[in-house]
Write the structure tokens for this entry.
Amino acid sequence: MQINDVISIEREGPLALIVIDNPPVNAAGHAVREGLWKAVEAVEADDGVEAVAIYGKGRAFIAGADIREFGKPRMEPILTDVCNRIEDCTKPVVAVLHGSCFGGGLEVAIGCHARVAIPGVKVGFPEVTLGVIPGAGGTQRGPRLMGIGAALSIITTGERIGHEDALSCGLVDRVEEGAPREVALRMAEEARVGALPCRKTGKIEVTPDAEAIEATKAKLAAKAAHLFAPHRAVEAVEACTGPLEAGLALEREKFQACIESPQRAGLIHAFFAERAVEKIPEAGAEPREVSVVGVIGGGTMGSGIATACLNAGLTVRMNERDEEALGRGRDTVGKNLAGAVKRGKMSEAKRDAALERFKPSTALEDFADCDVVIEAVFEDMGVKRDVFGRLDGICKPGAVLASNTSYLDVNEIAACTSRPEDVIGLHFFSPAHIMRLLEVVVAEKTAPEVVATGFALAKKLRKVGVRAGVCDGFIGNRILSHYKKVADYLVLDGAAPHEVDTAIEDFGFAMGPFAVSDLAGLDIGWANRKRLAPTRPAEERYVAVADRICEAGNFGRKTGRGFYVYGEGQPEPAPEVAEIVAEEREKAGVTAREFSKEAIQARFITAMIAEATRVLEDGIALRPIDIDAVFLFGYGFPRHRGGPMHTADVIGASELVARIERYAEEDPYYWQVPDLLRKMAAESTTFAEMN
Ligand code: COA
Ligand code: NAD
């Protein structure tokens, strides 16, 4: 019997199966909620039904509430009422969980009278990662099943657990092998005859656990003080020792406060950004098969890229200039894999299998069978030209030839080969086996199927591929080069580097810009500034502080000294930097002034948004959301703020224009209002409308 488009009831004698079929992931949107409600009413009214099981078609039981409905007017029945209705059903109702069972899906499950997991299922409450809390009984029924401590842990972290952990913490009652429908029939029958114990979760007594609550509060105060939702989750869980109805009402109130918070909007934007970037003009092209990847260069990036490819099950060749450098590359890959084993991310057997697939060699001729070659040699056009010229003579037809260059012109690199249609930029971020961003840089002649291959490879490596056009620095580094300058100007004009870092960290970045430079190596930026020096416009203010730190042989973390001194404890600001800054101010005739934390943040973010807008105007990024993804997954932009373009919409185009005009009174060369921003201010439009 079809209840509506997404819910139906299948009858087998005295058993009724309620089937959820709402592709792609059975999200509990309005139709699912309404259908479930009506289905429960129907099975209750049907005297022939003695037991009920709910299962999902496709790849999930229910992947959660429909995130697209968050922030929109609510439509009855709300999920809390649906879960209560299921719990109140006078006939036993079993939930059969497979694939994904998250958030609202898990709340439906714990509203049922028993839960059976099919191996492979993942369950959890990822709500806090979306800026909300479980809002349909998760904070009340969850602790009734798992105890307060386990519930707090799972709810405040968003951790996703497998069937074994779900069984041991009490979230599910049984693990059964089989297809969802078959397990559902079997379990409904067992519930009918009393072989599967059934109970109403809401009636279970919870043991108070003040210690777990205090410990969680302390942990959140230390690690997540700036986040809104996890704290509200604890407050809701605290109410679970009282009557269910009062707890549900409080949970609802806290959930609503989360829905209205700007963090919720930012986090959900980030969720969709990760998926939106896959929508590219080349999406229809057939990607080429990739099983053997060649990496040229075994330095910082080459060994990280090789590790990422090995982790994804690919065969990896690595080439270096000589045996010694190759040995270093091999060792770094070995250490990376050992680190994964140590952190419990990889089994020893998997590590051994990965090492079997790793084939370092100094003979580039060995790359003849590679499907994709990724060049990660020195950032020098001469070296890259030589490498691509040689690859052209060695690689098989159809091999994708990629460069990991950070700034150089991929068109020029492509022109060194007789097959520019096979050449692309694959710009990884350091450490390449950890950072999720991969800029897929599309040159003038790159073939669509080569772009599609870049995106398919990103997916295989579990990275977020973002399409970028060719320019100095592509999307991310071009914007970075611009806002790094404002950080330097802030220092020249009066702020200390560590004050800038602290302000930016307070905004939510994992690290401030000077700490990042120290980590990346100050020599990298130095080399780049020297490269650009001949073309630097005379009107541009130039801050030589970092150059002078480098001239003294200090390159940041790798030499133990840069903007900070790195020793045993916390890094300390390097005292000589203050002297250099004072001298540079004097040379420039600048009288130092004070900048508040807010003033630093405003200039930094405005500079970032201004250049990001120009990147968009130039067509280097497809949409504003692509820029957000670049910063969220490659530059440590605070996820709860959704990315620079989402932040721009929060600030508003008119305010941004006013700020830039104000700053331009001091430095009209650097601060220029992008035409697009002016137009947006005049028309009161947003970046979100361009996605
Ligand atoms: N609400 C609305 N849409 C959702 C959704 C949800 N809860 N979960 C996934 N989707 C959409 C995605 O946006 C994507 O849409 P698109 O194809 O238009 O881009 C589609 O479903 C497939 O999702 P995707 O993430 O690409 O598939 P996957 O197989 O890699 O992963 C999940 C599936 C369920 C693991 C993953 O989507 C996920 O983690 N979803 C969020 C779950 C969640 O947080 N639920 C709690 C909400 S309270
Ligand atoms: P690196 O100096 O650590 O490594 C470069 C390696 O290339 C060295 O081991 C060197 O021996 C090897 N090499 C040089 N010429 C070679 C040749 N002709 N054949 C084979 N091997 C050769 O540099 P890195 O930081 O790994 O950077 C490599 C590339 O990646 C550069 O283009 C850089 O701009 C880019 N990149 C770097 C980062 C980063 O954060 N370090 C991030 C993204 C992209």
Summary: The chain has a mean pLDDT of 97. Residues 564 and 575 are 8 Å apart (CA to CA). The chain has 28 helices and 20 strands.
